[in-house]
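Model: You mentioned two targets. I'll fold them one after the other.
Researcher: Yes, keep them separate.
Model: Target one:
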Amino acid sequence: MKAVLLDTHAWAYSIIDDRKLGRGVKQAMNEAAAILISPISVFEIAQKVRLGKWKQMEAVHEELPALVTNLGSSIATLSPEICLSAAKLDWLNRDPFDRILAATAMHYGAALISADTAFDTLPKGMLKRIW
């Protein structure tokens, strides 16, 4: 497998409780040529911690930039082209985090590791979701 992009919750699980990641997810991560993290995931976690919506991440949210390399992963560039693609996606999902994650995965030709079935509503063949 070329690359995988971790959805925000999948990355968080890998940091605080990897038992929430199934065997198939762990296998896909082990077999991937690259594990990517979107900068939008750092923003999403920090935002939810600030709003009191993600208590489990409070202890580690300040360390997120350093934790990117924890899995041997790297930051996926968030370019203006990816942002434009996210905005133009023909997809009813209005969640900006989901849209950026989908566009990032497509840009890199990466499968998306996510429990979120909303990604399955993208037009067929646009994105491979693993969970």
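Model: Target two:
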Amino acid sequence: MSMKNEEIFGVLIKDARKNKSLSQEKLAEKTGLDRTFISSIETGKKIPTLTSICKLAKGLDMKASELLKLYEEKVAEYGEDST
């Protein structure tokens, strides 16, 4: 099953958030990002900036490098769509 990169990242964020038992609202509070922006990332409609990725990682109690490593693993799992 091939997914777009932003969809893969969205699945990763949603899974990480749920594994931490965080609602979108709670993650928004922890990151300073808007809840609707987090929702848009999770659904693959928005592509986060590096700053947003760092905020998301911190809100998920991870390093940005850990988050990106998980992303790379998901890309390998789902298959990369470079379009």
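Researcher: Noted. Anything on target two?
Model: The chain has a mean pLDDT of 93.
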